Amino acid sequence: MQLKLEPRGFQSKFWSYASPVLAIALTIATMAVIFLVLGKDPVISLYTFLIEPLVAENGATELLVKASPLILMGVGISLAYRANVWDIGAEGEFTIGALFGGGIGLAFPDLPFALLFPLMLIAGMIGGMLWAMLVALLRTQFNANEILTSLMLTYIAQLILIYMVTGPWRDPQGFGFPQTAMFSANATNPTIIEGTRLHLGIFFALAAAAAGWLLLTRSLLGFQLRVQGFAPRAARFAGYKETRLVWTALALTGGLAGIAGTLEVSGPIGQLTPQISPGYGYTAIIVAFLGRLHPIGVVFAALLLGLSYLGGEAAQIELALPSAVTGIFQGVLLFYLLGCDTLILYRLRLRSSRPAALRA
Amino acid sequence: MTDTPLLKLTGIVKQFPGCLANDHVDLTVMPGEIHALLGENGAGKSTLVKIIYGVLRPDEGEILWQGEAVSIANPNHARKLGIGMVFQHFSLFEALTVAENIALGLSDPKDREGLRERIVEISTNYGLPLDPDRAVHDLSVGERQRIEIVRCLLQSPKLLIMDEPTSVLTPQEVEKLFETLRRLASEGCSILYISHKLEEIRALCEKATIMRLGRVVAHCDPRESSAKQLAELMIGTELKPSSAMRAGAIDGPPRLEVTRLTLVSDHQFGTSLREISFSVRGGEILGIGGIAGNGQTELMDALSGEVYSGKPQTILIDGVPAGHMGPSQRRTIGASFVPEERNGHGAVSAMTLSENAFLSGHIRHSLARLGLIDHGKTVEFAQEVIRVFDVRTVGPKAEARALSGGNLQKFVIGREVLQNPKVLVVSQPTWGVDAGAAAAIHQAIIELANEGAAVVLISQDLDEIFALCDNIAVIAGGRLSAPKAVSATSVSEIGILMGGISDPVGDSHAA
């Protein structure tokens, strides 16, 4: 007897939705084993990691705070991936967006909020777009693989951020810490609910998901992106220009990541520091895949991955585990997801090693 | 000895997901026999020969080779038994020489000694002239096929399987190939010849096994059957004569004019187009014949606008300079296109039929407004195509890949024809399509021309061109011969042009 993968010859609708569920279940089981090996009670550990953050005070709003940037970036990434534009540099676009938006906030702290905050968001969006468009330029002009260029640009973005906060933009009253001054009240992303950190970002995130859904399912542009991803030759046959779609896809990803960056630094963080993101840009890639590259799916996936950040913090405090637990959870999840996605195109069969009739 | 069949298959069954490709198939091939395996696309011929050649394994059934039961594990095993196969698609490295390509296919390194001499010997013996030191990319398709045949003959096979060998050859090359095959058969090598070209089978084969939908439906002697009888056995219904007739005179204005179209291919092994000129009037069907790989793909891309064709004046669509336009703009001014490849070019396999209707139909049918897709109108258009062209499907929500080749092709052709184009360019419209669908497609093309459209039909099937077209031109090496009236030319004349011997434009006069 052997286990065999057999091509289905078509995409299974059932497994394209069931695969993330199975992957999550397998991930939780694996986490239990990991906790056990680390000498912790798996039930208590899982409770601490996955449930406690939700029932804790402000748990729900904290989850939304974490999920907001993931949704914003996950939506952009989903749209780009649909068109086979594999931008894995949302982290860098997030960083440059934060620098552009934050820079406006620092430069004009006294402008009225109604003028300053939109300006910051627009600047952040432009920053993220410009960074992503470098990738588009390299791909369309020099045929450079965007997976490599977007990843490398992320490191450059990070170094620019460090340079700015330790050099030109360092807070003179900051006791030499590598950080800028706090944003003025007018440059701050306001909280929605008193006493929590929940900020305007969640509205932007939900709006982005809704707009992304509309774009993908109802608009000509979304159709073009999908055709480009499914069959580039058919896209050319239809008259869609590949370069234009690459630029558009990257502009969308970069713009949304830039907005996410600005919202994050002007909100929960309140200043520019070298650590403005716990890897949101990378996690958003997992979010996009887990959400089936669909803007609505991304919302749910972002909630789960957002929870992994809260769980990591809780595990650190209560179980004395390193915060790397978050990364392990995310990595294991992506691993299982990619594995389970095989079932969309293949079915598992148990069969005897040789057809009986041939043994004669 | 002659009473023992060389190869005897009994009750072969092969199941693929969603398709029973071989359903208890029996086949007997005697030594020295040229045996035809006849059937439409999808009848299960290829599956069966892949089982014989060890590429696939049967789920059930027995294979007797020279009277002994065998289980053919892989093609290597098949070659050791003495089975050789020439595939429809060659597996050759373009950058290597003939001898290098053949050496790569040999499993035993000892065989490489004196290989060049043996290639020359075999190729001259069997009338298959080949220079072992030429690089493959310089060779014509016919010469490439010779490499594959010589590669098989080096192993002195007892059975040679040929899968649709003539689809890439000129009529003259076909004759030569047949001589070689007859010679091999007279020396005792059996030949299993797969084709759906009836006249060829009648000319070459002495026995035929006819397959339909995975089953053997008949055995016959093709020399004693008419092509019509064979076709009816193959399709399973009576052939109806085509109902569409060409309308009288072609007196419309020129609707498509191409002037000195020259395009350098940016693919290493692509074909550059050189000084192509022709014009097609309303009501006219111009056939462009030629062997695959002589610039058909490049010409199609240039006419559809997928590749820009330089100066605007190079291509006039209904009098409007269009050389600089992309496909969408050309559609706006009245052109429609059906590329050769359905899957992933003319249609997107993973998308629904209504999405595929939108793909090229949204411009002339205004299926999008303010950048948003009008779903209602799109579904309506898809339904219209499905209804008018009798596309067998569950409806507009079916994914394109769920359709059979013939049905998807009817959908693609219907989508373009129902846009009422003034110019229609189609490439290989009935390639890999069952006879019923092919007849429907031919009829649609004729009706469109009768209504006053100019049609360009690029096809490797000369029968199709002669049946449908008013005028015919041949593309060879990226050059197009001067169009001639079909009534004023013959298959053999066209065959010579396909070989690229004649050079009607330019150089020869200048010299």
What would you note in describing this structure?
Chain A is mainly α and 360 residues long. Chain A has one domain (41-320): Orthogonal Bundle (ABC transporter involved in vitamin B12 uptake, BtuC). Helix content of chain A is 70%, strand content 3%. Chain A is built from 14 helices and 2 strands; from the N terminus they run βααααααααααααααβ. A two-stranded antiparallel ribbon of chain A has the order 1-2. In chain A, helix 1 (13-37) packs across helix 2 (42-55), helix 2 (42-55) crosses helix 12 (295-318) and helix 5 (113-142) runs antiparallel to helix 10. The longest helix of chain A is centred in the middle third of the chain and has 30 residues, at 113-142. Chain B is α/β, with parallel strands linked by helices. Chain B folds into 2 domains: 7-235, P-loop containing nucleotide triphosphate hydrolases (Rossmann fold, 3-Layer(aba) Sandwich); 254-346 and 419-510, Rossmann fold. Chain B has 17 helices and 23 strands. Chain B has helices at 45-52, 75-81, 98-104, 115-125, 141-153, 171-186, 198-204, 227-235, 296-304, 327-332, 353-361, 375-388, 405-417, 435-450, 462-468, 491-498, 507-510, and strands at 7-16, 19-29, 34-38, 60-65, 68-70, 83-86, 159-163, 190-195, 207-212, 215-220, 254-263, 273-281, 285-289, 315-317, 320-321, 335-338, 368-369, 372-373, 423-427, 454-458, 471-476, 479-480, 484-485. In chain B, the strands form 5 sheets. In chain B, strands 13, 16, 19, 20, 21, 22 and 23 form a 7-stranded mixed sheet that branches. A 6-stranded mixed sheet of chain B has the order 6-7-8-3-9-10, sandwiched between helices. In chain B, helix 11 packs across helix 12 (375-388). The relative contact order of chain B is 0.10. The model of chain B is unreliable at 502-511 (pLDDT under 50). The A-B interface holds A 6-11, 218-221, 223, 226-227, 230-231, 233-234, 236-239, 241, 355, 357-360 and B 16-18, 57-62, 69, 71, 304-306, 326-329, 331, 337, 339, 341, 344-351, 355, 358-360, 362-363, 368, 371-373, 375, 399, 401-402.
